[in-house]
Amino acid sequence: MEGDFRTEFVRAPGALKQNPALVLNADYRPLSYYPLSLWSWQDAVKAAWLDRVDIVAEYDHVVRSPTMQIRVPSVIVLKDYVKPQKRVAFTRFNLFLRDEFCCQYCGTRGELTFDHVVPRASGGITSWENVVAACSRCNLKKGARSLHRTGMALRKPPRAPGAEQLRNLGRKFPPGHLHASWIDFLYWDAELEA
User: Where are the beta strands (DSSP E) in 19-159?
Assistant: First the structure.
């Protein structure tokens, strides 16, 4: 009986759960490209109601309250500019993004790990300049040996990326779904075809 208790009293179309809003900074650029800056439609409606954002584009869906109705926002712009971070956090995700989700030894894509170029056993540290993305096969092949001893080579030397560099790299990896209303805002500075 307890499992039969109804917890949702309003039937919302299932599609509304799938209608995120692209969030743009006050300069009309996405807050981030990868992951793409998206808010749920509920957060977007709330921010619009609180006058924190302007709605630039909308979905065809409408949400209603007893006193009003609003079309679900598809693209919103923050009214206050959020200064982008200059410092890039050293995370596994950012490392893979820097290396474009590609093994830095053989170039394959897919399941990646990370590898210390100078092994920790030989005094190598965990830093941008010493860690690269590697496939499991190459990581096992290299093991705790130096590149010279294995005969392996790096595709490019590891460096600390800048925030702008990571933002630009993120644009190469769009999410699986891009709504048509987002395209102009995601690639507004891309070179046009002649």
Answer: 21-24, 38-39, 53-64, 69-78, 112-116, 131-135
Residue 187, classified by CB atoms within 10 Å of its CB into exposed (0-12), middle (13-18) or buried (19+), is middle
- Helix runs in 40-91, H state only: 41-49
What number of H helices and E strands is found in the chain? 6, 6
Predicted structure pTM score: 0.67
- Distance (Å, rounded) from C-alpha 37 to C-alpha 13? 24
106, 116, 118, 138 from 145: Cα distances, Å: 17, 10, 8, 12
Give whole-number Cα distances, 46 to 100, 118, 175, 179, in Å. Answer: 36, 50, 24, 21
pLDDT for 100-139, tens place per residue?
Answer: 999 999 999 988 999 999 999 999 999 999 999 999 999 9
Provide the 3-class DSSP secondary structure of residue 140. helix
pLDDT in tens, 26-56: 999 888 877 788 999 999 999 999 999 999 9
Tokens coding 3: 């499992």
